[in-house]
């Protein structure tokens, strides 16, 4: 198996929902989606969602509110991260006009491929 | 188990080698190390290294050369990524003065904790 690379500046992303574009790279057990969101700020958070996959997100750019069920919401900005164990309901609210989030999952999100 | 967050701007990183500082966050099966490297550019790449862990890296800032054994080196800059399957020998060469890399691994790097 070979190493691979991806350029988000020269490769078109996939718009999978209005205001949401993503670029995906993966190995057998690890998947990263670079998520560009625009059309903010949002008046309210997205509804909570959960998945068996563990997730770590790095905020490259923008301001978000990170929400996990039963925990205080926390404002995150460029250089901040959040980590979500398997099955924990979570959500974000976009507080800036746009944001770039780097979402990495284990196992891979078959639903993204 | 709870979700967690990390701010790399307000939390001190760990300098684990001259010119290398990292911040770490993890779930049971996923670990992200935000790596700040300075003292570049380097005259040559680091020696190849490998690990059983799968790795995906996002380049936040800076310019690097990414090398994987048996493959052509490729220059990466902000917004680019590389993905390394288990056991593939790989390395980087820092081409700019500094860089920030977001390295995510599965399983977690027990040697980083």
Give the strand order, joined by hyphens, for the main sheet of chain A.
Answer: 2-3-4-10-5-8
CATH class of chain A: Mainly Beta
Rg of Cα set of chain A: 14 Å
Q: How many E strands of chain A? A: 10
Helix content of chain A: under 10%
Q: Strand portion of chain A, in percent? A: over 45%
- Which outline of chain A best applies? globular
Examine the secondary-structure arrangement and name the CATH architecture of chain A: Sandwich
Structure description:
The structure is a homodimer of 113-residue chains. The first copy, chain A, is mainly β. The first copy, chain A, has a single domain (15-112), classed as Jelly Rolls, CATH 2.60.120.10. The first copy, chain A, has strands at residues 4-7, 14-17, 20-26, 31-38, 54-61, 64-68, 74-76, 80-84, 90-94, 98-106. In chain A, the strands form 2 sheets. The first copy, chain A, has a 6-stranded antiparallel beta sheet with strand order 2-3-4-10-5-8, with no helix packed on it. In chain A, strands 7-6-9 form a 3-stranded antiparallel beta sheet, with no helix packed on it. In chain A, strand 6 and strand 7 form a beta hairpin. The interface between A and B is large, with 44 and 45 residues. Strand 8 (80-84) of chain A pairs antiparallel with strand 1 (4-7) of chain B, so a sheet runs across the interface.
